[in-house]
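Before relying on records like the one below, remember that each one covers exactly one chain. Contacts with other chains, cofactors or solvent are not represented anywhere in the record.
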Amino acid sequence: MASSNFITSLGIPTRNRPDTVARCLQSFVDNAHKHSRDAAFTVVDDNKKPEYADATRRRVDLIRKSSASAVRYLNRADRRKMAAFLSRKAKLPQSLLEYALLGNEQSQESYGAARNTLLLASAGTLHVQVDDDTICELYSTTQGAQQLIAPTTIPTDRYQFYQTRAEALAIAQGLQVDVLGLHEAYLGKPLSILTDASPHSPDMFIVGTFLGAAGDSGMSTTMGRLSFQGAERDALLADPESYRWKLFTRNIIRAPRGPRIGVDRSLITINAGLDNRTLLPPFPPNMRNEDSVFGEVLGLCQPNGIKVHLPFTIQHDPPNERPPHTEVMIPPANLNQVLSATLSSFGPGILSSDPAANLPLLGTYLQQLVNAPLDEFVEYVSNATRRVYAETLKALEAVTEEMDQFPAYYQEDVTALRHQLANAIDGQHAFKPIDLWRYGYDVWEFAQSLFGRYAELLKHWPAIADAAKRWHGDWQD
């Protein structure tokens, strides 16, 4: 299949939210029509309840017919068919493909499996994935020129805080711009033609582009705000009456002031452009925070791939409002946070510039941990998680050095978080993945088994992705 420099597909993973995904799909279809874009839309439905699946299919079909757009709907039966086809072409067990595209049947949540389906369905193209609770209403946070901001001069993203989601959404709308074109301006381009701000390899290219969020933050914790610097810290501390709700509110507008090169591996894929012409890694099929693992593996396996965060936001409006935290605390670790921390401990010097060689090496690394006795596995992944906490603590040290010039209420919160992080690093924090407790299995044995399944997927993903690219769409025949 010939590759293209244009984005031709947009995918939406969804589960049990027919009205929400219909709102999302309609908004992106409308944006494509306004800007004369010939794009194909794919909704991957992870519903396991027939009533929700039927409702979602009806809503998607209605939009397809009324808009005359190329819209397709893939349910779990479709994905099982896709898995069977690709297992034959890649000469791999069907159970492995079903794990990649459907997840582990022991787990109710398989968000990454839906995203993997979109990756394989769009193999060989520039591709955009959006969350089903987003709306294609755009807002710009840019200030000044659009030159890429180099990693050495990255400012904190621009944050605007609101007490209600409605306030944030009311402001972050009305910008008439082609959302696919925003990604297209950077995605897949050589870094050398976009910036000369810092030394870089001539082989570096932009593998991913990401929009910010307006409305719900999409973040599980707000503790990063305590290490804000510059204008963002000034805004947080400007008024003692508003400090507390600004620290904890989920209602924000967040994006950089200009297009910036990302230096960390963590990702939020609320609205992500991906260069799927190159080999991208699989998402872990099960549980939440699948994008954090994807970002970690992408940084390891694709060292020449650069991520660019764009100075625009998309509306993020989940149907249910989660209450904000009310006190400074470290949130409990979940499975994919522990997995991401474990992967970050892999020595990057061992890897090459070839993702097809790197992914199997990462898989072998994980497999060796899985093959170890359970107590050794627990000790290793817990220590890896502690190292991530140590990095967070280090980011707070810059704040501590200037502590005397800040208000007492801010000093108290920074000190409280430092103490919690220090206790966690010293081993006084439980790293058992909290999201596995509900299943009734031994948590660490279950975690070890899921690590093992992802390890196997990493080892064989190059062959799976190659089969998807070679026989693009043939599985539907």
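Residues 166 and 215 are 7 Å apart (CA to CA).
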